[in-house]
């Protein structure tokens, strides 16, 4: 690739292994486990994020004059729009009906993971603004003849910087739990209205009365037996929801456990010593990130217990500021997870498609802002702070 400036060179890499882990992680930082070299490598080595599945790695690297990695971004040339959680199928269909070719496109994201975090990974002290990576991504699209670039679930500061550089901006919504310094789960419940507090206590009692043994496992406590079971849980969820082959392979889970160690947290339910349901989380510096769930049994409120309530307990115990429980789910509100905006930015080469998408996004952003305000009004927390 040609130089992006007098001091920078741009390269694209068809595997994260081509970039030394220490250099990548120096740019990515330690806050978000999904951006770590080890996580992205596990996706590729397990056969989950590969050209075969329509996720061809094209990781972007910007190096200085001495060859030092100054910035990078997790990038994939995509032949479809599956596994992204920021939906652009309608854009693709409209462009192709008009005679254009939407795929392949460049996706800047963590595959199969609707987890907000930085996407334009700049080494501290390099002095590079996010817009420099935005320019490099647009250049990569031109060089590879890709229709567009999509930076999804990025941080708000990146979203604003890319918008100022001419990218189109999109809003979404997720539901996160925030820790107000609670000393215990009971103290958290005390902040809720009486009706919501009683409902959560009832749900937890019913889950506990199932006869299942509920455990929270971390790092080396999660064995090969748990990973084999968890793949069955994962497949039960994907088969039921989508009825097609899942992206994450059987090999991915033990690789994840091996590479990320104590950053992996699993809430598991066992019957007669055998795992029958589980929720998988990754631990970051300031959040517990809920990612995958599945069950082989039908037990009332087990999903809420493993995915939401035990995650809150873990966050309180480890003094984490928040729990991010993944995509979708207005049902999370009454359990203390409140709406928060998510951000993505989009560069589109074709002027006509760009105008149409810009018009759509302007109307969608307004609707999302109204939706977030309406959902926030459903908060289960007491407004006056008084006991009831």
Please explain how this structure is put together.
This protein is of the alpha+beta class and 388 residues long. Helix content is 36%, strand content 24%. The strands form two sheets. Strands 2-5-6-8-15-9-14-13-12-11-10 form an eleven-stranded mixed β-sheet, sandwiched between helices. The chain is globular and about 60 Å long.
Rg over CA atoms, rounded to whole Å, is: 22 Å
- In spatial order, strands of the major sheet run 2-5-6-8-15-9-14-13-12-11-10
Secondary structure tally, helices: 11
* Helical coverage, percent range: 25-40%
The proportion of strand residues reads: 15-25%
Write down how many β-strands occur, each being a DSSP E stretch of 2 or more residues: 15
Give the ordered list of helices and strands: EHHEEEEHEEHEHEHHEHHEEEHEEH
Mean of the pLDDT scores? Answer: 94
Low-confidence stretches: 1-5
> In one word, what is the shape?
globular
Distance between the termini: 65 Å
The structure class reads alpha+beta
- Tell me about the largest β-sheet: 11 strands, mixed
Write a brief caption for the model.
The chain is built from 11 helices and 15 strands. The protein is of the alpha+beta class.
Q: Any descriptors?
A:
disordered N terminus; eleven-stranded mixed β-sheet; four-stranded antiparallel β-sheet; 388 residues
């Amino acid at each position: 690739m040609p130089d992006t400036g007098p001091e920078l060179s741009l390269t694209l890499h068809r595997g994260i292994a081509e970039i030394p882990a220490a250099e990548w992680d120096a740019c990515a930082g330690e806050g978000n486990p999904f951006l770590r070299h080890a996580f992205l490598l596990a996706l590729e080595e397990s056969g989950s994020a590969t050209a075969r599945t329509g996720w061809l790695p094209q990781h972007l690297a910007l190096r200085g004059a001495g060859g030092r990695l100054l910035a990078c971004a997790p990038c994939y040339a995509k032949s479809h729009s599956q596994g992204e959680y920021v939906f652009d199928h309608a854009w693709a269909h409209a462009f192709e009906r008009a005679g254009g070719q939407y795929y392949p496109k460049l996706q800047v994201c963590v595959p199969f993971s609707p987890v907000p975090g930085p996407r334009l990974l700049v080494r501290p002290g390099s002095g590079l603004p996010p817009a420099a990576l935005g320019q490099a991504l647009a250049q990569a699209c031109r060089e590879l003849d890709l229709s567009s670039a999509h930076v999804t679930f990025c941080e708000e500061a990146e979203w604003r910087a890319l918008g100022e550089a001419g990218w189109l901006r999109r809003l979404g919504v997720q539901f996160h739990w925030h820790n107000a310094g609670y000393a215990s789960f009971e103290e958290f419940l005390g902040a809720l209205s009486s009706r919501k507090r009683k409902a959560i206590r009832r749900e937890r009692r019913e889950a506990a009365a199932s006869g299942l043994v509920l455990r929270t496992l971390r790092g080396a406590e999660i064995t090969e037996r748990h990973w084999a079971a968890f793949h069955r849980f994962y497949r039960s969820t994907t088969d039921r929801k989508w009825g097609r082959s899942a992206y994450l392979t059987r090999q991915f889970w033990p690789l994840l456990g091996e590479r990320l160690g104590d950053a992996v947290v699993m809430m598991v339910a066992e019957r007669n010593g055998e795992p029958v349901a589980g929720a998988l989380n990754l631990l970051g510096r300031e959040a517990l990130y809920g990612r995958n769930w599945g069950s082989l049994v039908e037990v009332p409120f087990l999903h809420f217990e493993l995915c939401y309530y035990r995650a809150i307990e873990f966050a309180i115990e480890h003094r984490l500021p928040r729990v991010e429980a993944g995509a979708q789910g207005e049902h999370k509100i009454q359990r203390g997870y409140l709406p928060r905006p998510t951000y993505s930015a989009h560069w589109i080469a074709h002027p006509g498609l760009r105008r149409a998408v810009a018009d759509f996004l302007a109307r969608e952003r307004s609707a999302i802002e109204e939706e977030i305000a309406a959902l926030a009004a459903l908060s289960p927390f007491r407004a006056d702070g008084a006991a009831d």
